[in-house]
Design a protein that fits this description.
The complex is a heterotetramer, with 2 copies of chain A (about 130 residues) and 2 copies of chain B (about 400 residues).
Chain A: H1 12-20, E1 34-41, E2 46-55, E3 58-67, H2 70-83, H3 95-102, H4 109-124
Antiparallel strand pairs in A: 1-2, 2-3
Chain B: E1 8-9, H1 20-27, H2 45-65, E2 72-75, H3 78-92, E3 99-103, H4 108-119, E4 123-127, H5 137-140, E5 148-154, H6 166-176, E6 179-183, H7 195-198, E7 202-206, E8 217-221, H8 249-285, E9 290-292, E10 303-308, H9 313-319, E11 323-324, E12 326-327, E13 329-330, E14 337-338, H10 340-344, H11 349-353, E15 355-359, H12 366-386
Parallel strand pairs in B: 1-11, 3-4, 3-5, 5-6, 6-7
Antiparallel strand pairs in B: 2-8, 7-8, 9-10, 10-15, 12-15, 13-14
Helix pairs in contact in B: 1-8, 2-8, 3-4, 8-12
The complex binds pyridoxal-5'-phosphate (PLP) (2 copies).
One pyridoxal-5'-phosphate (PLP) binds near residues 77, 109, 183 and 185 of chain B.
Chain lengths: ~130, ~400, ~400, ~130
């Protein structure tokens, strides 16, 4: 069983985000402008949820939760952190950019797509009043 | 936590360290002043001394298995033993039939060998184990056919540590005139193994699962050298023509000593390990959402295979990198593939994918077990916190 | 003279002791505090460290042969390498033809493997070596056919120490699109071996002929892992699927270190051995009625094979029991059978039957050589005295 | 080559006779009553020669030479020594008795037959005048 059960090399950025998980969590209380979105399925090994508060066409705050490998957790954390202050942009984030920044191996692109999908779903979701 | 911390070794089922007493016997057969000669060099005294040590080791291995010394054929490990047993018997008895029965939870050394025979025209029935992953006569009997020549079932499963119910299978095979091969790589030295009690005609063992060296094993062949197998490796006719190649004295002597020590120490050690294992399980199961894979009672003392709800396997393994453990999933391939053994047991994908095999052995201590429990609990709790709740956004399964 | 006297080891061609520097590297991979983990356990740091050492060893072995690391496949020794090379290539390329060319003086690991393929439908041409036992393109070329898929010729003959003329055979094979396998078990570490210079597609080596451990070897496969062989041992897909089974870290590391040392020390050591060997030959040939078997010039420094007129082989061997040497005859079988290699060379039965192989190596000293010469001279003279003269009673040949 | 090149176990009697070879040699000078006989062929690995001096129907002296394995040398030596003083007996020696006395393995019986044949040929040979 051990033969193929190797761990990939993780970049220091992935390691740091996996350990500390910055932007992990929920946005507390009732928040006007709150949106949330998710993608993936635990049964397939990846599920990511984002919550954000939008204000004036920008992401004011963003939090994530993730079930997945360290790359997924790191990517979700990176997206949540870097979303804050950005204009809402339906084309952001981009998996290839994420893969480059975090040094994610090519066979993990599918998992990163789930992160992208979850964030885009969040941006497109109806805002809480 | 960093990678330079001392690792706690909990992977005794993958391989064991060589016992220092065994190392000494091996070193005694290596250097220029040691017993290094070729055991085949019967024309001189150093060669004969090497041969004597090889034959003493053969007696030790035979003794542990309840076999006669000429029934032990040296190989390079249980993988080769499994190949030689299955291909060797299938090819030798090809005129009697070309059907083989085995189980879905065998080691790859058996399954891949069977796949190869399928390519060469044999038919193989792969039975699904019964309750708790146990293979018993109830699964095997319906699979037998008039042209069945061989049944191959492992003694102890290497992933989940369950002990199959072999004696009735042996009896069944005897009645039907079918050869019975047992892969005992994970059993020898861990629980009593007796070829007669099992009704085994062929039995594979490896040294490195029992504190002997990697790269040496043996195949028991009932009635050898009168009974025969088709050899895989030709050249010189060593081992009654069934396995050619220079005998590796130090490896064989190491295996003999390891098996001798196992025979002497097994009962007490099994007790110690069972109690450590129980402590480990008590610590882990306290977390909640932890499942033991495989029958809880019919198992070797050293192996625990557990699945964790709500944590992903690769993250778990990485979070636990201070522990040397095996995972039930293959992370390096494009799509993460859950263990075929756990799938054969009917575990759902999430649980199969987040399983860990923790295996303890001769050098495991209570302190290590306690540290491991603390680590697993902390990391599982942390990963569960990172994970979305069932009630996070829409439903769990939605895309 | 009694058997407890210190034996002078003159059987380095049968096996060598493991160099103490190699023993240390091996021991570093054995015990509970050593690098003992399974190199396949990529899920944890100890496993990855073991894998790193295996890969370092692969680079050392590749370097000695002028190969790329992925072209090195670990095996249990040259017997297995020869089997895997010949059967693996023959079976993989069976659709291209089923004819193989080899020589009558190959090691049994090649000859018995070829015999097995004959049973399975292949045709084999066994060429007789040329002058002095040397196999060259002149012998091989006439044997090639349009359906020839493989030529297998050893580099150094293990009985007589002659060096075959391989590069032109490699060129010939390249021209004809035929695979070329070289059994280099007796060559690696003894003289420069370069797979490109030889034109070899496959090349077998063993650790224990070069101060590494018994029970580990390697097969060079040009272009691996892209080029393929039909594997013999299935189960888990180690070594790019071409040789399954747990990698024996200490064995592989030992082979790597042995080959590294050989590469560093070979030129100087070859010179030292050649001069010892010349001293030995001078001492023996002084007796008269002593014949050197095999070409006197094209040979490795370590091996002398000599035949003695007027002495019977078994008595000679027994009289020389203070020397660990190999004999050219098989004494245990009912009818004493002279070496097939010496017979292929055309030696008459008496001379073939009274041959000795004396092989020297890293720990051989001038004092040992001188003592050996003294002993051989005294015992040959004594046995010749016991022997009937040509003019004793009727004629020599009468019954 | 070494695989089958083993040496058998030799009994202490065989070892002693191989080392010291009692009764090795020739009967010197011109001897009335001298007989000699041989059997075997060096090319087949065994050749044995006996010389004896017969007197009054008995073997007065006997010497041997032998080319062969230690069993052959020991057997020839034993026969030569034990012949001395014996009545000439066409049925002596007997290979099975030799094999038992010297603990010779069964596959060597053929070689002992050469010893027997050589001695019997010697006994049957015409005497020197
Ligand atoms: C059940 C079982 N069979 C066979 C093997 C293969 O043995 P080896 O590692 O000696 O090739 C193993 C271990 O790897 C095993 O656990
Ligand atoms: C020329 C040659 N080929 C093959 C072998 C077999 O190698 P191993 O002893 O590693 O099985 C030997 C030595 O035994 C050899 O001398």
């Amino acid at each position: 069983m051990s033969l193929h059960a190797g761990l990939p090399e993780y970049s220091s950025e992935v390691r740091r985000r996996f350990e500390r998980a910055p932007r992990l969590g929920h946005l507390a209380g009732k928040l006007p402008g709150r949106v949330s979105g998710a993608a993936g399925d635990v049964r397939q090994g990846v599920r990511v949820v984002f919550e954000a508060r939008l204000a004036e066409g920008r992401v004011a705050q963003c939090r994530f939760r993730a079930y997945g490998c360290p790359h997924v957790i790191a990517a979700a954390s990176w997206v949540a952190e870097h979303a804050e202050g950005r204009r809402v942009d339906p084309a952001w984030p981009d998996v290839h950019q994420l893969a480059r920044l975090l040094q994610v191996p090519p066979h993990k692109l599918g998992s990163l797509l789930v992160v992208q999908d979850a964030f885009r779903a969040c941006m497109a979701a109806p805002r809480e009043a | 936590m960093n990678d330079k911390h001392e690792t706690i070794y909990l992977d005794y089922a993958a391989t064991t360290p060589v016992d220092e007493r065994v190392v000494r016997c091996m070193v005694d057969c290596l250097g220029p002043d040691a017993c290094f000669a070729n055991p085949a060099s019967s024309s001189h005294a150093p060669g004969r001394e090497a041969r004597n040590r090889v034959e003493r080791a053969r007696r030790e291995v035979a003794a542990l298995l309840g076999a006669k010394p000429p029934e032990i054929i040296w190989t390079s490990g249980a993988t080769e033993s499994d190949n030689l047993a299955i291909k060797g018997a299938a090819r030798f008895h090809a005129d009697r039939g070309r059907h083989i029965v085995t189980s879905r939870t065998e080691h790859k050394a058996v399954l891949d060998t069977c796949r190869q025979l399928e390519k060469e025209g044999w038919q193989i029935t792969y039975v699904t184990p019964g309750e708790g992953g146990i293979v018993s006569a109830a699964e095997i009997e319906p699979a037998l056919r008039p042209d069945t020549v061989l049944v191959s079932v492992m003694f102890v499963n290497n992933e989940i540590g369950t002990v199959n119910d072999l004696a009735p299978i042996g009896e069944l095979c005897r009645e039907r005139g079918v050869l019975f091969h047992v892969d005992a790589a994970q059993a020898a030295g861990k629980l009593p193994v007796n070829v007669d009690a099992l009704g085994a005609d062929l039995l594979s063992v490896s040294a490195h699962k029992a504190y002997g060296p990697k790269g040496v094993g043996a195949l028991y062949l009932r009635g050898s050298p009168k009974s025969r197998l088709e050899p895989m490796i030709h050249g010189g006719g060593h081992e009654w023509g069934m396995r050619s190649g220079t005998l590796a004295t130090h490896q064989i002597v190491g295996m003999g000593e390891a098996f001798r020590l196992a025979a002497a120490e097994q009962p007490a050690e099994a007790e110690r390990l069972a109690s450590l294992r129980d402590r480990l399980w008590a610590g882990l199961s306290g977390l909640g959402g932890v499942h033991l894979n495989g029958d809880p009672a019919r198992r070797v003392p050293g192996i625990l295979n557990v699945s964790f709800e709500g944590v992903e396997g690769e993250s778990l393994l990485f979070a636990l990198r201070e522990l040397a453990v095996s995972s039930g999933s293959a992370c390096t391939s494009a799509s993460r593939e859950a263990s075929y053994v756990l799938r054969a047991l009917g575990r759902d994908d999430q649980l199969a994918q987040s399983s860990l095999r923790l295996s303890i052995g001769r050098y495991s201590t209570r302190e290590e077990v306690d540290r491991a429990v603390g680590l697993v609990r902390a990391q599982v709790e942390r990963l569960r916190e990172i994970s979305p709740r069932d009630d996070d956004e829409s439903t769990k399964g939605a895309a």
